[in-house]
Amino acid sequence: MENPLLLFPQLNISASKDKPYYKVMKSTIKEEPHKASKPGVKQKRNRLSLLLQKPEFHESDHLDKPGNLTKAASVSPEEAVKWGESFDKLLSEKAGLDAFTKFLKTEFSEENIEFWIACEDYKKSKSAHELLPKAKTIFETFIQKDAPKEVNLDFHTKEVTSQSMGQPLRSTFDAAQSTVYRLMEQDSYPRFLRSAPYLRLLQGRPAARAPLRRRSRSFTVS
């Protein structure tokens, strides 16, 4: 058999004069830009990392814990009874608002109460110059088409709210807030009062795990 070095003289590389093969390959790899370093990929990874840190991606972490709806030790049966008197009474008390918010999370409709809370905070703005940035945030988060937490509003209410964004007033979101309030009062609130965790609170027993439910869209604003 002939010497392969004679057939392929290019393989006759002197180790004393040229770099070893693995070093040549290593330097070649370094010269090629890595795909992961492209801005688009890096931005997507950053967004995904932030997204995974959001509480809604870890619902099972708190739903498995007893008393996830509210801390039974801090809510007496008498106080829980008051929550059933009216929806306004429920939202006016911090413990009730917290309990209802956690209940909506089990139905994947927490954007409604979050929007209502944002509107309450918006109306408490101390100066006019605070209104514009807050209004823009609320509109982009809850109202505009394909917003990350878009609430269910009729076309007229959404259009009127959109038109007032140029010079927002403290009353800019009143119509939208009232619509979402009615939606929760007529749709989610009755189910909250019938839920097993709330009934346990009435009996003075610790709240157990609330079962996951699909997003409720049974109530549609006409």
From TrEMBL:
UniProt keyword Glycosyltransferase present: no
Q: Which UniProt keywords apply?
A: Signal transduction inhibitor
Among the record's GO biological process terms, what is one? negative regulation of signal transduction
RGS domain span:
86-202
Signal sequence interval, chain numbering: none
How is this protein named in the record? RGS18 protein
Q: Which gene encodes it?
A: Rgs18
